[in-house]
Design brief:
The complex is a heterodimer of chains A (573) and B (290). Chain A is α/β, with parallel strands linked by helices. Chain A is built from 19 helices and 21 strands. Chain A folds into four domains: 174 residues, Pyruvate-ferredoxin oxidoreductase, PFOR, domain III (Pyruvate-ferredoxin Oxidoreductase, domain 3), CATH 3.40.920; 181 residues, Rossmann fold; 63 residues, no CATH class; 110 residues, Rossmann fold, CATH 3.40.50. In chain A, strand 17, helix 16 and strand 18 form a beta-alpha-beta unit. Chain A is globular. The two termini of chain A are 28 Å apart. Chain B is an alpha/beta fold and 290 residues long. Chain B has a single domain, classed as Rossmann fold (3-Layer(aba) Sandwich). Chain B is 32% helix and 17% strand. In chain B, strand 7, helix 6 and strand 8 form a beta-alpha-beta unit. The chains are: A alpha/beta (573), B alpha/beta (290). The interface between A and B is large, with 69 and 60 residues. Strand 15 of chain A pairs parallel with strand 2 of chain B.
């Protein structure tokens, strides 16, 4: 059996759950393993119950599994809440100092975390670093690498030094007391990998694409995008700002783009509600724009720190009137990067708004990935005005060209003025009422839809080429569906999957080609109404046999898909 | 001096207007053109950003760069254009409903951030394009089809701006083109956010605040008072003056840091427009994730 260890760190907000979970994930990545990690937290800053899961595998992983191999319980609640999620042979590390009514025996590994932290490192606050040291011993992760990470995290000074001592104490304690329990795990590969989440990959993609402007308004789960762009603003020459609201953020991105730079904004569904009128403005003025929408359960405030795929049809139909747009829903951390680069290119090439639709699960989960090959980044600004075309001094922002794309020029260009309006306009961008010009402009804008459709990649497929059952999905569910396919095939069923990341304009031809006729098809979505199933049917007349839907705010797991599919096909299987 | 000028009114000639004959907007358009010519700015150096309403159409009638956005949304778009290309002279224009109603939040924050842009508000105390409803600056008791018991207490743009610590707060009158032109010029030259609220009769729908009504009341601060625009307290007192006498001119002016210079994470020493990407930078960023 290939290496596959599921760790869970549980505690209350403020106990460093996220911090040590992340260090563990990073430690596993530095040990050469593939990692997938996510956090589950409540919409509060202190207290409550939080947990962070880290899955360590020998090969590519894009989801979590349900059963926990090693639970690190930082408080009593974690012991109570999660012990039943443990595998039969799973281990639990808990704090003897905090949980006194639990006997340390068998796989229940009580460690006096606070006492060790206080005695060895001089401060009981480092008790979770003691736990980290114990974990390193128990699953054979390199202690020196752990120390190296702690020094990176806490700095080479006293705090860093004390954390390495705390880790050593945990490691020694575990070696002394739990030698028989420790797992012997195969070594990881040596390839140096990145560990990053969806938000971070989008930031990197935007910077690699030469984004120069971002305005946003804080909203879970995508606030770290504005923070990340701002953190790198000086080095990468990006102007970023926190606007007064999402309406302003959107209009700022439009103003910056019109003025001539690559511009973006990011929000969640609730914030995007406010951006809708700006979206229409971008459509009418043919202003390139990249909009990241990180979904969370709605409507209204919904579940602010949970996940859902409920905004697909909203984004495809947002704003009144008809105009072209592009929608990507990345399904891996690599796609978060590459589709962001592509989004900026398509936005400029076709002078349209482009969505990157993620969700809380995708935005905040950490994945290992090989370092992105930046030599593959291509920047395409699309058609840019050159003097004399068509007539000197007579620049037409909305020139009625054959393919609908008018060369762009920017304010400040000597000899011309650049004008556009949210009113229907003529080629020069000035308000018109004329029926003929209105129709010509509508057609000009919509001509771009079919052109940009040619840039949309076919959905990914995975599993046997011919299968009795095809699982379909989009966006963040790919890792779970792929693993469900593996498990079902392992159990003797003949299942494959077809997964969408580049969704709009809908790649009708490619989908019709990819989807086999005659087999059974099930759509897997993190929503309650099967939005992609509706879209598929509207665009291709292909009707799925059923939907596997989850709308409790939690991500879809392979186990959930396997169980639901068996229920669905039980009658015919 | 004017004789050697290369920029003339002619270069600013725009498209045919769709305003009512006698509309106060004509005076504002003339004053703006005169200010741009006086400053010897060329059309390509100027970006006008406008909202929706009769005022929002103004950029269509003058030959400059223009971005005619949505109702109330001029200021964020104008501010961002200035941020990415600070060589542009950015002038936002809209009406009282556009700026003080729909765009109220943006107005507050643009003043607070002190973007280096000029904001012209055509304030006719009524909605013109939708045919005569009350606006946020309609006088109290003003009867319209949507305010049959009279409009509520109006917003006072001057007092609001001074309270919000705007760095240039002025009021003009479309009937005094020369004076208004001077205000616009001063607003453009001011480093920071310059609000110029412009009293302007709506000849079709506002039968109360007519040209004559304003003419009888307005007086120039620089001629008929010893007002010191640097004094915020007296500026605030002046801003409350409305009724028999209405002051026009610069009520308040101060120097304070401009958002683009002081509060962006980067120092904008050259326009961001036209910079090529920094691939080396991204490579080193990737290493931080390993």
């Amino acid at each position: 059996m290939a290496l596959d260890i599921n760790l869970m760190v549980g505690g209350e907000a403020g106990q460093g759950v996220q911090s040590i979970g992340f260090i563990l994930a990073k430690l596993a990545a530095r040990n050469g393993y593939e990692v997938f990690a996510d956090q589950d937290y409540e919409s509060r800053i202190r207290g409550g119950h939080n947990f962070f899961r880290v899955r360590i595998c020998a090969s590519d992983v894009g989801t979590l599994t349900e059963k926990v191999d090693l639970l690190i319980a930082l408080n009593k609640d974690s012991v109570l809440l999660h012990s039943q999620e443990m595998r039969a042979d799973g281990m639990m590390i808990y704090d003897n100092d905090a949980v006194k009514d639990l006997a340390s025996e068998g796989n229940l590994l009580g460690i006096p975390l606070q006492t060790l932290a206080k005695e060895k490192a001089g401060n009981k606050i480092m008790s979770n670093t003691v736990a980290l040291g114990a974990v390193a011993y128990l699953i054979a992760l390199d202690l020196d690498r752990l120390k190296e990470l702690l020094l990176e995290r806490f700095g080479p000074g006293e705090t860093g030094e004390k954390n390495t001592i705390a880790a050593q104490a945990g490691f020694d304690h575990a070696r002394e007391h739990f030698e028989m329990t420790a797992r012997r795990v195969p070594a990881g590969s040596n390839g140096r990998k990145m560990l990053l989440n969806g938000n971070e990959a989008i930031v990197l993609g935007a910077l690699a694409a030469g984004c120069r402007f971002m305005a946003g308004y804080p909203m879970t789960p995508v606030t770290p995008i504005l923070e990340g762009m701002t953190e790198n603003a000086t080095r990468m020459k990006v102007a970023t700002l926190q606007a007064e609201d999402e309406i302003a953020a959107m209009l700022m991105a439009i103003g910056a783009s019109f003025a001539g730079v690559r511009a973006m904004t990011a929000t969640s569904g609730g914030g995007f509600n406010l951006m809708v009128e700006g979206l229409g403005l971008a459509g009418m003025t043919e202003t390139p724009l990249v909009i990241v929408e990180g979904q969370r359960p709605g409507p209204a405030t919904g579940l602010p720190t949970r996940t859902e795929q409920g905004d697909l049809l909203f984004l495809l139909h947002a704003a009144h009137g008809e105009f072209p747009r592009v929608l990507f829903a990345p399904s891996t951390v690599e796609e978060n990067f590459w589709l962001t680069v592509k989004a900026f290119n398509l936005a400029e090439k076709y002078q349209i708004p482009v969505f990157i639709l993620t969700d809380h699960h995708m935005a905040t989960s950490y994945w290992t990935a090989p370092k992105f090959d930046l030599s593959q980044v291509v920047i395409d600004h699309g058609r840019i005005y050159s003097p004399g075309v068509p007539v000197d001094g007579d620049y037409r922002r909305h020139l009625l060209s054959e393919d609908g794309i008018s060369p762009r020029a920017f304010p400040g260009t000597k000899g011309i003025v650049v004008f556009t309006a949210g009113d229907e306009h003529d080629e020069h961008g000035h308000i018109i009422e004329d029926a003929g010009m209105r129709a010509a402009m509508v057609e000009k804008r919509l001509r771009k839809t079919d052109l940009v459709r040619q840039e949309i990649a076919a959905p990914k497929t995975y599993g046997p080429e011919k299968a009795d059952i095809t699982l379909l999905g989009w966006g963040s569910t790919f890792g779970a569906i792929r693993e469900a396919v593996d498990r079902l095939c392992h159990e003797g069923m003949n299942v494959n999957c077809c997964h969408f990341a580049e969704i709009w304009p809908f790649p009708v031809g490619a989908v019709e080609e990819v989807l086999a006729k005659g087999n059974r098809k099930y759509m897997v979505e993190n929503n309650a109404t099967g939005q992609m199933a509706q879209l598929l049917r509207a665009q291709t007349c292909i009707r799925v046999d059923g939907c596997i839907l989850k709308y409790d705010g939690r991500p879809i797991s392979p186990r959930f898909i396997v169980d639901q599919l068996k229920k669905e096909v039980g009658a015919v299987w | 001096m004017v004789a050697t000028a290369k920029v003339t009114q002619k270069v600013y000639a725009g498209g045919p207007t769709a305003w009512c004959p006698g509309c106060g907007n004509f005076g504002i358009l003339s004053a703006l053109k005169k200010a741009l010519v006086d400053l010897q700015l060329e059309p390509h150096q100027v970006l006008m950003v406008s909202g929706i309403g009769q005022a929002g159409k103004l950029p269509h009638y003058i030959r400059t760069n223009g971005l005619n956005v949505l109702h109330g949304r001029t200021l964020p778009a104008a501010a961002a254009a200035k941020i990415v290309n600070h060589d542009l002279v950015v002038i936002a224009v809209g009406g009282d409903g556009d700026g003080y109603g729909e765009g109220g939040n943006h107005f507050l924050h643009a003043m607070r951030r002190n973007h280096d842009i000029t904001y012209l508000v055509h304030d006719n105390q009524i909605y013109g394009l939708t045919k005569g409803q009350a606006s946020p600056t309609s006088d109290e008791g003003f009867i319209t089809k949507t305010t049959i018991k009279g409009a509520v207490d109006p917003i006072n743009p001057m007092a609001l701006a001074i309270a919000s610590n705007a760095s240039f707060v002025a009021r003009g009158f479309s009937g005094d083109m020369e004076h208004l032109s001077g205000l616009i010029k001063a607003g453009i030259q001011h480093k920071g956010f310059a609000l110029i609220d412009i009293l302007q009769p709506c000849v079709t729908f506002n039968r109360k605040n007519t040209h004559a009504w304003y003419r009888e009341r307005v007086y120039r601060l620089d001629q008929e008072s010893d007002h010191d625009p640097a004094d915020r307290t007296t500026a605030f007192t002046k801003s409350l003056e409305w009724g028999d006498r209405i002051p026009i001119g610069v009520l308040y002016r101060q120097e304070r840091p401009v958002f683009e210079d002081r509060f962006l994470p980067i120092t904008v020493d050259q326009p961001l427009v036209g910079l090529s990407p920094e691939p080396g930078g991204v490579e080193s960023l990737l290493d931080e994730f390993v």
